Amino acid sequence: AEKAGLLTRLKDEGLLGNTQRYLGKLAGQSGVNANTVPAVASVSPDEQFSQLLAGIHDELKALDTAATPAAPSAAPMAKAANPMARNSSDISARSLKNASPPAVSSVQTQKRIERVQLKIQALKKMYAGIEQSFNDTEQQLKAANMPAEILQRHHAAVAQYQSRQKQFQQLSEQVERSSGAEQQRALVELSRFMGTHQNAKPHQFTDPNKLPFGSPSNKVRKPNETKAEYQASLFPPKYDKIMLAGAIPDGLKLAQASLPVLPVAQDTAETEDIQLTPAVKAKAQELNNNPVQIYNWVR
Predict the structure, then answer these.
(1) Where is the composition biased (Low complexity) (predicted)?
(2) Which helix (H) or strand (E) segment is 176 a member of?
């Protein structure tokens, strides 16, 4: 049932996210060199895969920010108001629109590109293990006699992964083969692809016995049947030392430990909130002015 629920969610996952549920069996098979790809060692294969994708996307977003051309100055816009200058302004606008992205030349940008390429190489080493994991999962589903719908979902997830993996590989190979302005355009295309297909967060198992809602527990404490039990519930032992830490000041009168057996006048006296009308007094006399009987009648 857990695997069936897992496969139900696979169609809505992001870029290559469909593979992350299957990577649990790939330990020792990824072939990724932790020395060449920093910050991904000592983690599970699915976390490693997710970190590589997130790292590539972060580097690409940083490259997009660094390569964004500066906004055109206001001088050409002011000259556009002059009819004699409109033709030149139109030519400038078309030139900016059709201009190629600036070539990558800075040392910092080149280092980012190298890190992207290292992570791409690390992902490629995991492809074979991913495909094998898909095959293993299909065999497990068949061995468990899962319904045909589950197998169809699995096949749809595999097809979606293979389609996006193929697109990702084509774009990444363009980044590796090209240089200069052509490489910059390839990086922009790869960044756009990864922005469209966000890498999804792996599904977190939810314990059905620890939900934030549900029926109340039938495990209740036993009722207090003695005075000692009642007082113990009011003053747990962990508070005894705090209450007895200081001496009782002189002149302080404590409340009575027990209530009087018979009602006193204060029990049925008028208060700021309750005025005793003739009808109320008549009913109280009918109930023998007994607070318990009055309470039960009101209840």
Answers:
(1) 75-85
(2) helix 148-177
If one counts every other C-beta atom within 10 angstroms of the C-beta of residue 243, the result is 8
Q: Give the separation between CA 122 and CA 30, rounded to whole angstroms.
A: 8
Q: Cβ distance 137 to 153 under 8 Å?
A: no
Calpha distance 276→270 (Å, rounded): 6
In single-letter form, the type of residue at position 60 comes to L
Q: CA neighbours within 13 Å on the CB side: how many for 253?
A: 2
- Residues 4-46 have pLDDT tens digits of 444 444 434 433 444 444 443 333 333 334 344 444 345 666 6
Contacts of 130 (CB under 8 A, 6+ apart): 19, 22, 23, 26, 161
The alpha carbon of 119 is separated from its chain's Cα centroid by a whole number of angstroms, namely: 25
Handedness of CA 81, 82, 87, 93 (dihedral sign): negative
Asked whether 18 and 155 are in contact (CB, 8 A), the reply is no
- Dist. CA 85–CA 90, nearest whole Å: 9
